[in-house]
Amino acid sequence: MQILSDYLKQTGVDANLQSLIATLADCSVEISQLVRGGALAGVLGATESENVQGETQKKLDVIANDLIKDKLAAQPLVKALASEEEDHVVACHADGHYLVSFDPLDGSSNIDINSLVGTIFSVLPAQAGIDGEQAFMQAGRNQVLACYMLYGPATVMALTTGNGTQMFSLDPTDNQFKLVDGAVQVPADTSEFAINMSNQRFWQAPMQQYIADLLVGKEGPRGKNFNMRWIAAMVGDVHRVLSRGGLFTYPTDTKDPNKPFKLRLMYEANPMALLVEQAGGIASTGYETILDIQPNHIHQRVAVILGSRHEVAECLAYHSR
Ligand code: AFP
User: Fold this and answer.
1) Is residue 109 lining ligand 1, measured as CB closer than 6 Å?
2) Residue 220 C-alpha to ligand 1 middle, in angstroms?
3) Which CA distances in Å does 302 have to 81, 176, 242, 253?
4) Backbone dihedral angles phi then psi of residue 202, each to the nearest 5 degrees
5) Which end of the chain has the least Cβ crowding within 10 Å, N or C?
6) pLDDT tens for each residue of 25-46
7) Measured from the CB, is residue 234 less than 6 Å from ligand 1?
8) Is the pTM of this model over 0.85?
9) Structural domains in the chain?
């Protein structure tokens, strides 16, 4: 089985990107070991602090964030980084080529219940003369690399450098990521959807109607039955979509009028949108293609509807009526 570094070399990925990917893989191997250690490694439970989004930080969130920050700061190609767990952009190397955004531990509410968590990375090109947060204000379409690592029964990495989406699995015998699928394809059709149903009463009319039509199944306008899954970690739900298709959404809601969207654009929606698009799927807010959004803040949130292209198109049709 082909190891990650050989695959990247053989497929002509830019040498600098190869080096950066090696650093990201390295981070995830260490985080994977900590996740596997669980209570024995003393990494479960909460800290006393809150992150910039006002969420209580789990110990492992903080440990994973610090680990990635240190490794990226030691990688000369990184000009600056932005993390879910950092209020502000962190400057690294003035002559670095890349801006790295990341969610160190997506799905952190799953940590203490021994369920799926992962790490998500998005990489933008650095631009001469533009520093700080302003440098990150590029549409997701500009990403030169997006990937996630999912710490499940196996640790896997989904990766794109803009030339399709590839899947690797971490071999625990030598800690190398090995290629398992060189051309991931999201099936165009699906009968599976993922949404947090407990928010139903807070959704807007188009999503209310779309989900209602799925729930009536065979007897309704869709003429077939649908199954539902919800992992509460985007990384797990998107992995299922990449593996067997499906529609995943965290739509606009009115639960908290000050927070109509849940998912973060820079380190959740954008990298997942690129991975899904590169695998033949679609990613939208309902009204706009995610990768075309012009960001205005590193911690900006957006509505997300992504997955199998025919099913996402069905859902978007409700939004344009
Ligand atoms: P955390 O990383 O803060 O746990 O958030 C995970 C997440 O942003 C995303 O990965 C999930 O899809 C979503 O939140 C789950 O949200 P609910 O708690 O509303 O199910």
Assistant:
1) yes
2) 30
3) 20, 34, 21, 11
4) -100, -5
5) C
6) 999 999 999 999 886 777 677 7
7) yes
8) yes
9) 4-181 (3.30.540.10), 192-320 (3.40.190.80)
